[in-house]
Amino acid sequence: MLSIARLKSSHLRLLLSIADTGKLQLAADQLAISQPAASRILAEIEADIGAAIFERLPRGMMPTAIGQTFLRRASVILSEFETLENELQMIRSGKSGKVRIGAVTGPAVGYVVPAVRHLRQFAPDIEVTIHVAPSAELARGLEERNFDFIISRLPTGYDATDLEITPARTERVALLVNENHPLAAERGCALEKLRQFEWVMQDRGTPIRQAVENAFFLAGQSLPDQVSNSSSLLVALTMLSAGDVITPQAKEVADLLTETGIGARLAVLDIAEHIMVEPYFVIRHRHHSATEAVMRLYQRVLDSL
What is the pLDDT of residues 169-189, one digit of tens each? Predict the structure, then answer.
């Protein structure tokens, strides 16, 4: 005996096919089952609900009042089944689903965004979240399963036993200024010349800030006297537009601002020595499950390094 709770999509398709054709045999043929099997399924469903779904007439089978209600709901249920099947197939194939990535600023601009654009060419329905934050926050988020993978540095003393770590690149710092800055057109600027200007730098202890300070120390120079502390790019851009301010940014960010027209009034200083930040890595947790969409984007990022 069938129970409504155990009805299969094939049973619902049979009922809808009977309603469409008016003939049990034709409905059975459409579903590639025998007429006796179709008759048995229909009889069990009707016995289970305690009422006839179809009225047997000389000219064919017609839905009863109860049958019309049953068929209306069956059509809705089948539509939801088909939607569910399609969505599951899209997720399994990597053409749908959610991907959550954490990254420090440079690789977020230089690698994650291009990888997402590439993936959307064949998987436009993928929902991607890109969270830009310091490495310590990203590592904690990966451990708490807030991210599928991250691109960051490893915090000092962090236990990497369960992590899959792929070396990426060393981040280069660019010094952004207003295009009218007195040093904008100069080549091979020494750090000594930069001390006299106002700076807006990331918070103390951040990798870019530390790299800039180390560059001054290695050059035998003291740090600039006028420094505003802010990790906000918007704050930095606002200050650049107002005067002869210098702000250190990841090279990928500086390139985006100066080469795409987004920051048409900005320039990158040509300095005598490159300022480099410690390397970052592409990191995922070995024991966290990953969908096909996650692995596609993860692999794309790795291929672009």
Answer: 888 999 999 999 999 999 999
CA gap 209, 195 in Å, rounded: 15
Nearest of 139, 76, 67, 68 to residue 103 by alpha carbon: 139
Cβ within 8 Å of residue 233, ≥6 positions away: 105, 249, 253
CATH of 98-169+279-304, one of 3.50.50.60, 3.30.70.1140, 3.10.270.10, 3.40.190.10: 3.40.190.10
d(CA 122, CA 125) in angstroms, rounded, equals: 9
Number of residues that this document lists for the chain: 305
Token reading at 165: 């770590």
State the Cα–Cα distance between residues 147 and 133, nearest whole angstrom.
12
CA dihedral 227→229→231→234, nearest 10 degrees, is -70
Report, at the CATH architecture level, how domain 4-92 is classified: Orthogonal Bundle (1.10)
